[in-house]
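User:
I would dearly like some help making sense of a protein record. Take your time, and here it is.
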Amino acid sequence: MGLLPKGARKGITEEMVFDIEHIFYVKDVTYTDRTSRCKAVHGTGIIVTGEARGIGPWIGGSEADVPDRRRQDSRYRSDYDRGRTPSRHRSYERSRERERERHRHRDSRRSPSLERSYKKEYKRSGREKKRARWEEEKDRWSDNQSSGKEKNYTSIKEKEPEEVLPDKNEEEEEELLKPGDSTVVGTSRLRDLYDKFEEELGSRQEKAKAARPPWEPPKTKLDEDLESSSESECESDEDSTCSSSSDSEVFDVIAEIKRKKAHPDRLHDELWYNDPGQMNDGPLCKCSAKARRTGIRHSIYPGEEAIKPCRPMTNNAGRLFHYRITVSPPTNFLTDRPTVIEYDDHEYIFEGFSMFAHAPLTNIPLCKVIRFNIDYTIHFIEEMMPENFCVKGLELFSLFLFRDILELYDWNLKGPLFEDSPPCCPRFHFMPRFVRFLPDGGKEVLSMHQILLYLLRCSKALVPEEEIANMLQWEELEWQKYAEECKGMIVTNPGTKPSSVRIDQLDREQFNPDVITFPIIVHFGIRPAQLSYAGDPQYQKLWKSYVKLRHLLANSPKVKQTDKQKLAQREEALQKIRQKNTMRREVTVELSSQGFWKTGIRSDVCQHAMMLPVLTHHIRYHQCLMHLDKLIGYTFQDRCLLQLAMTHPSHHLNFGMNPDHARNSLSNCGIRQPKYGDRKVHHMHMRKKGINTLINIMSRLGQDDP
């Protein structure tokens, strides 16, 4: 409280100041005695509306934004020296006057019997008010969409254009000045930062791809089949469903793999890449055109409606619900080299993501997923809304990470988009959490614009051409220090496929003393199953015969010696196929560092990011089940049991999107050596079958809670 001048102390309690210091970054601003305003010290580029905090109407983002900046020795004294509140904008005064008039008339009409109900409404918590406002906005948005084409515009046409335009401007000003909608408004400096980020990093991949010559891949039999099926739609529902049996007969896997290998922009023969709507061995969806109009597998969730776009230069605090995402157990998510941002002489360590939803996530069970043979639980914990971001900054970061780095092209958060569909907002926004622990046990979260500034600072060439000769002359200790800093970092080569990889080693060996070559990036990856022994037809045929013979020998009363020899021979043949260099799953990739750029992101960010598609699919699926409750007029109590009943036994929620895209991104950008659990976890929750399993279960003693 000692930092505030007398004029600014009025209306601020100790609780408010503690709230501001620990949550809303008052350390970035300083108060001035002349105006009772504050200006940015570190150039935050964000202005905070202080009406709800009791500070005043605005807290300026720069000295130019602060009104009434006059000299103390002039005859025009500041509002603080005069003892008055600072002057406000005319539109603000008009809206306040209309509010007073409306409340005055409402108070005159109010009966004494309604006084108690108004007091109860006033005492509601902020979160309840936000939920009520969200329901009203949702109903209003859906009504506008459904009845948009049936509106009668005669009353508007009768008005003069000069009368309509001022009313529209006043309505827009009123909409922008709603106290509960947004608590942060971006300044011109923040808008310039967003433009710079979009120019240097946001559009870098698209520019690099446009600069390369176009490549028309050769067509396969499946392409001809898909074209014929899209031209002639199926009349019956049976023909419109996914039929992998008929397509698999025509589908030439080998030709499809050869086509992907022949891409001229491919980074390396052993690195696999993502294409929209494609798996490693062909198209993701083999459905007809009619079947693609429905189904969750086509990103069409029943009951979902388009969401009104958020205001990009505000934080939309009145519309969004904030949830902190954590994963338990933390195995494979806590690394020895986390992503760290240094700011204001402190280190902010990456701990996960925050999620902002447009609807409250109530009555949704925890999300469980099996990855690396470990049963993970994804928690989404509702917390108070942070104020240190704008929605446009979140979207710029999401496009940079999920589209340009991880290349998750098939992850769709908006639903199906048609030509006549209005612009809509993603159902979820994500913010990376870089935190530092405070002495009193709290956490300080780094603001979003500082993260964007960090990414811009880190965007440098991995090995600059003008410094390569100097770097080759470094002493071994100095080079080893630089290589250790780069280990685990994600680097990107715009325009290539894949665009980004993880650095596991950085070697500077020169094989030809007459020619200076760039240092070598060493990456340890995993070959896709379609290209390793797991996808080899000969291996699959031999494996089936081996499993069949092993099962027969296990259930036969007497095992002959010749049968044992047959089993050993087949096992030895399988082992030989596994040990072939062309069939091994683990591969070592060596790349020239020429053309690679640092991103500032490490593998821990990618590990956490690859859990988000699973969580969003889980939430959207349960929101569909809530829509089912409304349709049938009955609410199921056990939501997990309902999810189990509505899920086919063959479906396993592993990635929440195109599985090959997720596997490729994890192999290219995830951690190098994940720790694996027991393979039995896959069979614990599956349907039990087989005579041996039946005998094993029936031989156990009965239990009250099996």
